[in-house]
């Protein structure tokens, strides 16, 4: 049997892939949480929370993340050409809140440093992956970004922040934590 000979299935309306059903179904896949940071060409630090991050290749060293191309931070990071993926620890809901929203000043009052690669490094994260934009492919309302790793910076030991079924704890699935002052979750990636 070939793919051409297959008849498309009749899909019940109750299983059609609406945005709400996609979020609910894919929420059953637990992911880590990161903050992708960069400097805009004008020197302003920018960043966004991102749970769609993965390793692609060890040789050459490549990673990927997906970013909403309608967001404000990603287009500015893309233009600069370099970024840092800051891997969040379980207790860093404050950083997730700051960078998971389009509201508020993400760096205001935050003790961050400029990395040797010219990108913002966030405090207390588990690790930092410093990279340059290698390839960008459009995919629906997001860009799939492949980055060539320039440096790896382990920072702290600890449990990772995990996003599962709308919350940040796999022990209590389906119970989302209350949003912080930045209203995280309204414009991830």
TrEMBL record:
UniProt keyword Cytoplasm present: no
EC number(s) on file: 1.-.-.-
Keywords, in A-Z order: Oxidoreductase
Span of domain Flavin reductase like: 26-170
InterPro entries per the UniProt record, alphabetical: Flavin_Rdtase-like_dom, NADH-dep_flavin_reductase, Split_barrel_FMN-bd
Keyword Oxidoreductase: yes
Superkingdom field: Bacteria
SMART domains in UniProt: Flavin_Reduct
Molecular function in Gene Ontology: oxidoreductase activity
Pfam families named in the record: Flavin_Reduct (PF01613)
UniProt family annotation: Belongs to the non-flavoprotein flavin reductase family.
Record's protein name: Flavin reductase family protein
């Amino acid at each position: 049997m070939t793919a051409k000979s297959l008849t498309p299935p009749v899909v019940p309306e109750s299983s059609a892939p609406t945005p709400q059903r996609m979020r609910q179904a894919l929420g059953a896949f637990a992911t880590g949480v990161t903050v992708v940071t960069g400097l805009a060409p004008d020197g302003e630090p920018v960043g966004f929370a991102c749970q769609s991050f993965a390793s692609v290749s060890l040789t050459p060293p490549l990673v990927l993340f997906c970013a909403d191309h309608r967001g404000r931070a990603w287009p500015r990071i893309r233009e600069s050409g370099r970024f840092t993926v800051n891997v969040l620890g379980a207790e860093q809901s404050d950083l997730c809140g700051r960078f998971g929203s389009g509201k508020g000043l993400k760096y205001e009052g935050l003790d961050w440093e400029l990395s040797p690669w010219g990108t913002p490094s966030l405090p207390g994260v588990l690790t930092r992956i410093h990279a340059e934009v290698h390839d960008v492919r459009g995919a629906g309302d997001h860009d799939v970004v492949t980055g060539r790793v320039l440096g790896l910076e382990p920072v702290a030991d600890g449990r990772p922040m995990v996003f599962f079924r709308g919350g940040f704890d796999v022990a209590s699935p389906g119970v989302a934590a209350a949003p912080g002052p930045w209203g995280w979750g309204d414009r991830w990636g």
